[in-house]
């Protein structure tokens, strides 16, 4: 009787609840989100979220601005407490060290044939810079920091050493592996943990600044694989080999996999800057246009097919992605609006078997997850952290029957039962009321798995009782909601709001807690205009997540 009375009171108050939620809304649209938890459509790495540390220094400028400061791997302030805390909040963050200047980087170890000096501006140099050099004392400092923060490291090696410029951006000749050999040997001797070695940066296809033919590139990868196998011969685990770290070119990538064959390349990595130039005044419009965002689908789909056909032994990574190239969009890439693009990319790439997604950058440029001087997190940092903590390895199919402005993604929840939905509302005027359905509740799901409604009900009841324990059956069962909005409604705000509270560094200098709002499962699930919501459904019956 008490349960029925509560239900009646809730239904009576529902119009008032919706009026409060949608006070300023022009449109309200009811949508159905169907999640297939029977089988996962893909699986990501446990440390899917990754960030990059680049080599650019304070002389790197784009469009009259120089946004890199001291964020290079050569001079990043490793002693700043907030930098370490920002990484440690992930409990093992993947970090890729690499970038455009890596193919001009020397390692000051062994019999180095060239003078060792920092990168400096050079008019005729590749990307307008001279060669640079990494001292082993700095390499030691970096590895002490990585050990302290429990980071998982990918290091991208110089792949141009020994080649010569033929003209038109094309480089020919065999790779000189001597400096890389000495560097890897030093790393092994110091017992520094490297999860993967990458070979070169954006040399695939026509390349960015420089290119190498797929055949020669493949032969050099075989050489590098032999070096890794030899130097890690006595190690319990060998680092993976990743390549090519460039923009996808179907014939070039296919040729690379054919030349190297099974047992050489463990990870195929691509770079994505699908928003275009950072100076584009239409950057925000692109981010909020679902049809523009959908163009990236082909990049993930085509690479997935190419790898499946030519190198099914290799996993797929996005080795670098910053949205807008040339250091990102000023007052766009480091603001709330960029999270629409970033989280959509994470969701879309995961559905196409991308195991890891590396964001350009952790620090530096306009697209850094952290401010380059204070290390205070930008909005995308919190988006990345929430994804890392909530979205598990199992990727589920989730579709909605509403407007293209509503983007829906679903994963098994990380570390616990149920699923987590990611809802992204690109509309500036429509509130969506979502009804989440399990495909098992539909005729399609029952037919596909030959599961009767009765058997599903019995299984669901058993699982509900086991989770609820001795709770009264009419006690509220809740979901968790993490609603993300910009401060003061300003899409270009650098302050993200979580469930109405600003995310700011605490008084004692720590990353703030990311606390959810617990909502009765009977309450409508809504997503306001131009906002993002993670929704944890702990009682959702998903066989793929068991």
From TrEMBL:
Keywords: Glycoprotein, Hydrolase, Lysosome, Membrane, Secreted, Signal
Signal sequence extent: 1-19
Any one Pfam family match given in the protein's UniProt record, by short name: Glyco_hydro_79n
Molecular function terms from GO: beta-glucuronidase activity
Main localization (coarse): membrane
This protein's record includes keyword Transmembrane: no
InterPro entries: GH, Glyco_hydro_79
GO CC entries: extracellular region; lysosomal membrane; plant-type cell wall
Location of the protein in the cell: Lysosome membrane; Secreted
Membrane topology qualifier: Peripheral membrane protein
Family: Belongs to the glycosyl hydrolase 79 family.
Role according to the record: Endoglycosidase which is a cell surface and extracellular matrix-degrading enzyme. Cleaves heparan sulfate proteoglycans (HSPGs) into heparan sulfate side chains and core proteoglycans.
Name of the protein: Heparanase-like protein 1
Provenance organism: Pyrus ussuriensis x Pyrus communis
Lineage of source species: Eukaryota, Viridiplantae, Streptophyta, Embryophyta, Tracheophyta
